[in-house]
Amino acid sequence: MGARHWGWAALAIASSVAAQDIAPSTPATQAPSAQGDVSVTIYNNDLALVQDVRQLELGSGRVRQDFPDVSAAIRPETVTLAVPGATIVEQNFDYDLLSPTSLMEKAVGETITLVRTNPGTGAEVRERAKVLAVNGGVVLDVGGHIEVLRDDGLPVRAIFDKVPDSLRARPTLSVTLASTRNGRRPATLSYLSRQLGWVADYVALYDQAKGTIDVQGWVTLRNTTGTTFTNARTLLVAGDVASEGQPNRFGNLQPPSRPVRAAGTESASREQLGDFYLYPLPVRTTIADKQTKQVSFLDVKGATATSAYEYHNGWLATREQPASAASTLRFSSSRAGGLGDALPAGTVRVYMRDARGQAQFTGEATIPHTPQGSSIALTTGDAFDVKVQPIVVKRTALGGSRFRTDMRYVVTNARGVPVTVDVYQDGLDYSFTDTRIVAESLRSERPESNTVLWHVQVPANGSTTLTATIDTRY
After folding, report:
1. If you ran DSSP here, which 8-state letter would residue 121 be given?
2. For residues 276 and 68, what is the distance between their CA atoms, to the nearest angstrom?
3. 144, exposed or middle or buried, with CB in 10 Å at 0-12, 13-18, 19+?
4. DSSP letter, residue 2
5. Rounded CA gap, 334 and 3, in Å?
6. How far, in Å, are 40, 104, 298 from residue 240 at the CA level?
7. CA distances from 121 to 5, 7, 117, 118, 156 (A)
8. 130-144, 264-278, 377-391: which has the highest mean pLDDT?
9. Whether the Cβ atoms of residue 237 and residue 273 lie closer than 8 Å to each other
10. How far is residue 219's CA from residue 222's CA, in Å, rounded to a whole number?
11. Taking the CA of residue 273 as centre, how many other CA atoms within 13 Å lie in the half-sphere pointing to its CB?
12. I want to staple 371 with a disulfide (CB 3.0 to 4.6 A). Which of 120, 264, 424, 474 is the partner?
């Protein structure tokens, strides 16, 4: 018994009815799409509804009908098919697609033809071989000898007598129908599919001198279903709820960004379906497999915007070194002076012009689905010149479960202009039943039970020290 190694990666696929006179065929050649009038409704959460109206020529009685070019990520349990004068008896989704690997796997136990080429002379030798196994390589019985095909680059190809019926060149839904009559009629196929989704992407150009922002909104479509949807009527649906992690209220970690500071109450002019906003593409489009496509849906010039600095301190914590304040960009989605639209969830990329007038990237942040009229603050990065150092000066036990903490916050500004830093002390209701500010050098706000906010003004090339005494009770 001998063992020889042949180039698995170099295998070429062909088929014929007669094994000895083999003419290459092209079962996997891309044929024109079998889809009909296609409509695709795409949701944010990796889900799409495909509706495909095809004209079928059906006979009478029990007939089998194939629907090629459906999504390879179809959810078969969601399929519905409406055909006048016919009812569904059985349906099967054939997702085992034709490929060199699948063809060899289906040939286990069958006999194929090996064609070996002499690298020096170019002469070909053909041998019949039985496929024994396909497990990390191909094991063959060639005239009583065991051979292994591996990826070693030697010139060899395999020729198959036929393509198994179970392998399809394209994702195909097979349906058995009970038809009451002969004739041509429309068939409406509907199903849900994964791997087809969209997100919103925003490009924002901030003019600090004018206090304005220009925003371009893009819908970014991604299709990895294994199928191209040709000349499709496309509708995008925004409305799934996005959530962020809860703030870390203990230790020195800052809480995650909260881009929507106040939810809007204005009704957008866009079409709605229940609680969802609809964004129809203006013209039909082909959504190709493995394609990313962008379509503009928002273009606003000169909306009001301001920049600001924010710093969040965790539960009455000390930092050994000053930390950067966060750079934020604040604007509104309101109709008056804002963007005037409901904003689908997505990423906002912020740019500013440098001294030469060239737009430069300054940071990005994500927003959830945001109603029109909302107040938005995007954290785009850490400030280089604006720092905050919180310090626990003293912590005193007052008896029982009461404690007093003396805090000092040193805010520095190396910029040549004055700045205002919003300093947030978070974590004030972490395991506490009562928290009170008993003394402070600057009047505070209490936006929520967990947080105290001070608006600290810092002179150019200077510093400001904020002090506060906080009583807590467990």
Report:
1. T
2. 32
3. exposed
4. -
5. 75
6. 18, 43, 20
7. 20, 18, 8, 6, 14
8. 377-391
9. yes
10. 10
11. 11
12. 264
What is the gyration radius of the CA atoms in the chain, in angstroms? Answer: 33
Q: Looking at this protein, which amino acid is placed at residue 117? A: T
Q: Find how far residue 249's CA is from the centre of its chain.
A: 29
Burial label, 157 (beta-carbon count in 10 A; 0-12, 13-18, 19+)? middle
Pick from 241, 246, 251: which is nearest to 319 by CA? 251
Q: What share of the chain is helix, strand, coil (3-state, %, to 5)?
A: 0, 55, 40
Contact by Cβ (8 Å): 175, 27: no
pLDDT tens, position by position, 192-210: 999 999 999 999 999 999 9
- pTM greater than 0.90: no
Residue 438 tokens, joined:
């008993």
Give me 206's structure tokens: 């901030």
Q: Whole-angstrom Cα distance, residue 391 to residue 325? A: 15
Is the alpha carbon torsion for 6, 12, 17, 23 positive or negative?
negative
Going from the C-alpha of 339 to that of each of 165, 204, 281, the distances in angstroms are 56, 11, 20
Q: Decide if 22 contacts 159 (C-beta within 8 A).
A: yes
Helix (H, G, I), strand (E, B) or coil at 228: coil
Residues in the chain: 474
User: 55-84: per-residue pLDDT in tens?
Assistant: 999 999 999 888 888 998 988 888 999 999
Q: Which amino acid is at 121?
A: T
Where is 237: in which H helix or E strand? strand 229-238
3-state DSSP call for residue 27?
Answer: coil
Q: Is the dihedral of CA 156, 159, 164, 169 positive or negative?
A: positive
DSSP three-state, residue 245: coil
Torsion, Cα 328 333 335 336, to 10 degrees, reads -10
Residue 398: count other Cβ atoms within 10 Å of its Cβ.
Answer: 11
Residues near 165 by beta carbon (within 8 Å), at least 6 away in sequence: none
Q: In the chain, count H helices and then E strands.
A: 1, 31
From 256, 229, 235, select the one nearest 52 (Cα to Cα). Answer: 229
